[in-house]
Amino acid sequence: MDPLTQGVLGASLSQSVSKKQHLVIAGLFGLLAGMAPDLDVLIRSESDPLLFLEFHRQFTHSLFFIPIGSFLCAVFLHQLIGKRQGLTFKQSWLYSALGYGTHALLDACTSYGTQLLWPFTNERFAWNTISAIDPAYTLPILILLAFATLKRNSWFARFAILWAITYPTIGMIQRDRTIEAGWQLANERQHVPMRLEAKPSFANILVWKLIYETENHYHIDAVRVGRVVKLYPGESISKLDVSRDLPWLAANSQQTKDIERFRHFSNGYIAQDPADDLRIIDVRYSIVPNQLNALWSIKLSSSAAVDVHVGYETHRDSSPASRQAFLDMLFGVEQLAQKQSSVD
Predict the structure, then answer these.
(1) 56 φ, ψ (degrees, to nearest 5)
(2) What keywords are assigned to this protein (predicted)?
(3) Which of 2, 256, 257, 341 is least buried, going by the fewest C-beta atoms within 10 A?
C-alpha cells in the first residue's frame, strides 16, 4: 500500500487507544512506525536488480518481526520526541507496535504479495481485496484522523479503524463475485482453469482483472462488478517455457536463475513479451485490466556473460487511449461491455 495510507492507518490505531493528553503524540508514533517497514526498499544492489524484489515485503513485513521492528522504532522515536512529551518507554513502544503492526496486514490485502510468516515460509500472501492505491479507502481514514487530532477525540480514530476493516470486507465480496463470473466465463469457453484469480484494478474495487491459467496459456479479462456484472473479454498469452522460448539461454547462467526468481515473485504468472522476445513480463498487472501491457518486466541479453544478471524494467502505460479504455470500464460504457446479468 502507498506510504500515506500506511501512515494514517497506523496513526489511527495508535490514537484509538490513546488517552486525550497523548492523542497527538500517539498519532505521530503510529504514523511513523506505520511507514517504517517499507524502509526495506533501501536494500538494493547495482549488480543485482532483483535483490530489492526479494527483500521488499519480506522480513520487515513478517508478523513475527513486529516486536523487533516496533522496538527499534520505539527506541529511536522515544529518544527523539517521546521523552520530551512525557511518555514512558512502554507507552512509546505500545504506540509504535500498534502503528507497525498494521503495515503487513494492510499490504496483504493488496495483490502484490507479502511474506507474513517469514522465516518459516517465503510464501507471499495476497488477499486481493483492495488496490495498492485507492482514494476511497484512504481519504475517509485521513479525514477521520484529522478530526481525531483537532478535536482530541479518539472516537474519530476508532471510526477510521472501522472503515479500514469494512472497505476490504466489501472488496472481498467483490472479489468473490468476480471469481464466480470468471468460472462461468471459463466454462463458456470450454476451459478448465488450473487456477483462477481476481485482482482489483487501479484505485477502485469496482473493476477487476481476471486471470486464469490453463495448461499452456494465461487468459486475461476484466470484470465490472456493480449492480450487474459486466465482462470485458481480453487477451491470452502462452506461458513461458524457457527451453522452448529461450533455447539459446544456458541452463546454469545467472539469467536463467533470475527468471526463476522473477517467477517466484510473480507467483508463476510470467510470459514472453509478444513485442520483445528478450523481455519476460509479469502478466498480473496492467493499467487496462484486460490487456497485457505489463507494468514491470525483466530484460535478457543474448550476449551477456554467464554470471551477469538480467535487467529490471518498469513500464507506465499512460496513453490517452489506455486511460479512456480504463474509464470506460469504470463507468460501465455499454458498447464495450458484455452484460452478464445471469452472474449477478
Answers:
(1) -70, 130
(2) Membrane, Transmembrane, Transmembrane helix
(3) 341
Kindly report whether the peptide bond that precedes residue 200 is cis, defined as omega within 30 degrees of 0. Answer: no
- Which residue, chain included where needed, has cell 490485502? 109
Query: Which among 220, 218, 201, 202 is positioned nearest to 210, based on CA atoms?
Result: 220
Could you give the CA distance from residue 17 to residue 66 in angstroms, rounded to a whole number?
18
Of 204, 37, 225, 202, the C-alpha closest to 137 is 204
pTM across the whole model: 0.92
- Identify the H or E element spanning 314: strand 311-314
Is 115 within 8 Å of 57 (Cβ atoms)?
yes
Query: Could you tell me if 84 and 21 are in contact, meaning their C-beta atoms sit under 8 angstroms apart?
Result: no
- The residue ranges of every structural domain in the chain are 3-170, 189-330
pLDDT of 6-48, one tens digit each? 999 999 999 999 999 999 999 999 999 999 999 999 999 999 9
CA 106/CA 86 separation, integer angstroms:
31
Phi, psi dihedral angles at 271 (to 5 degrees)? -155, 165
- The C-alpha atoms of residue 157 and residue 303 are separated, in whole angstroms, by 57
Task: Report, in angstroms and rounded to the nearest whole number, the Rg of the chain calculated over CA atoms.
Answer: 22
